[in-house]
Amino acid sequence: MFTSNPFAEMSSLIPAAVMQGYVVLMILLVIGGTVLDMIHKGSAKYFFANAKAAKKNARREVSGGEKVSLAVQTLANEVLTSAEFKNPKRRMSHLFTMYGFILMVVTSAILIFSYATPDAQAPALVSLLWHLGALMLCIGGYWFWFFIRVDVFSEGKAWYQLMRADLFILSLLAMGTFGLVWSITQSAGAAGWSMFFFVLFVISSTTLFSTVMWSKFAHMFFKPAAAFQKRLIKADGSLENLPSDYDLTDPAVQAKYPDIPEYMGKNPPNMGLGIKREAPGHY
Fold first, then answer.
1. In this predicted model, what pLDDT tens digit does every residue of 116-137 receive, in sequence order?
2. Longest dimension (CA), the chain
3. Is the pLDDT score of 40 beyond 90?
4. Whole-angstrom distance, CA of residue 87 vs CA of residue 70
């Protein structure tokens, strides 16, 4: 089963051109949804305005070489290894889900555009990676859903309490789950069940890629840019107009932020460990 191409079997019912057209449509929906999301939330406008304001407060000019170095650091830490997650369980869950999704999407495109006919023998490695990607997606996604979700841990909500923000992870999980079950039933020769789970697989995939504007999907495009900008403002010293050492007793800091003396006194007391007294149970 793990080395078989499920899309080739479906080509007897659905022409390869139709499957390829579906993939193109999903790509267009993601692009369109991301653009609409940026327009609706004003995220791109805010990002560029924030970057422009930070540049005015820069204390030094960051060279082109430094920017390349910062971009590489962002790619290595925030993008490829998700180092911003300090909770190791949350980080592993995210990495399983992210790389599983990437593997599944990329190999789906390869199998559909190059090997979506019965006479086209797909490399066993590509089919294996498709199944492995779906399995990784499920492991990371279910791990997050049942054991890590911040609402469940911090607010005592049941795992089945849903909100619109859950649309992304649920459609993602459904796509990976139904894709695996579809392949299993297809290999077992259960034609009726195979078609049933294939339909669910298509519905969940369509939901995932067509609801970008109402889900977390678009954050994968903003996250690297925001992480790079964060490194850049530290490098040029602008720090989004915040004090670098956070010494609340410094008269210069108090003069720049007059609310500090008003609400906390001229010599703000040591506030203690606060939430650091115990390790958080969520991310």
1. 887 888 899 999 999 999 999 9
2. 79
3. no
4. 24
